[in-house]
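Changelog-adjacent note: as of this version, every example in the card shows the full chain rather than a window. The one below runs 396 residues end to end.
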Amino acid sequence: MEERRPDLLIHAGRVVCPATGLDGPGTVAVVGDRIVAAGPGLDGSAAEVLRLPDAVVLPGLVDLHAHATHAGDSPSKYGVEPDVHLLPFGTTTVLSQGDAGALGWPAFRDDLIAVSRTRVWLALNLSRRGESMTEGCFEILDDADVGACVGAIRDDRRTGTSAIWGIAVNVGRPSCGRTDPRAVMARALAAAGDTGLPLLYGSRRADDWSFDEQLALLRSGDVVTYCFNDQPEGLLRGDRVREAAWAARERGVRFDVGHGMGSFSFPVAEQAMAEGFFPDTISTDRYRRHLAQLPRHDLPRVLSKLLAVGMAEPEAFARVTAGPADILGLGGEVGTLTPGACADLVALVWNPAAPTLRDTSGGERPGGSWEPVLTIRAGRVVEPAPAPATPPTRLE
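Full-length structure tokens:
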């Protein structure tokens, strides 16, 4: 049987697939929504041919911690429209961190997941109201409703959506207010135990609960986000990575960057990586306040900050593609250029004159940045996002 002519050929100065070790000049061939070949020596005709001699082509990026929402009932106060604010900048798959709880899950499923071009998964908020109210999601302890959380997850399984990856619980002061964070965590562990799902955990960074004690509660497969924050109850104890973090990693707990607006410190990241403690995933924690930010807060820029503090490029690329894809259980379908995988792709170019890289405390590091120039989702080119109507605020 004659092979079908490719619908799309992308020739690039560099094609990189961390999952397979591919790295060099090459081509990606696409038929329909599937990759059919990737590597050097591919040529021939196609319905559409793109030539990107100055770009690196990667699998579509996977952001393990960002915020997505819909325009229906009870939208997330943090969420952004993924097809507008994530997909055009290289993120083809996103895990939405706690933007919906049990009460908002049906609308999140029907009005966002089902209609978005972006592949959206959810870490279901333990709070039944999710992030739909102005106050913290756990300021009323009864909102940490184990029964409702478990029921929504069972509904996801029964209906075949299979889009709830795990349970989001943030025990920081903004989320808990005066509620005892230990009580919230106990309920999160109960819901996780009943469903067999992992936690996406935002830690308590205040001195009323030791990070060592928090880490001891986490299980293999759980993910700690905001891992490079500079708070006293953070990754470092003094000027070294705390032993409890090493022990947690040894038993299978993962660590995610979750940059956000207050959770990424160059000195903490540098010290951790100098000791060999690397994050498992690089994520943006992109949310509504970032929409007014200049330079734009996107996943290629965040991974560039990890390069600036000493992470090797192959390691950084893996942590925005194959690594988070595997954590989501999507390895082989997402985060790879393997033939048969979904044709999600991003092309990046290196800008040596990019705006200075800054952490969330204003610290700076020299160096350029990777910037997205093309996104392809399921074999179709994504149109660039429109420029903002008003000049953005200069934040970092």
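Structural remarks: The radius of gyration is 21 Å.
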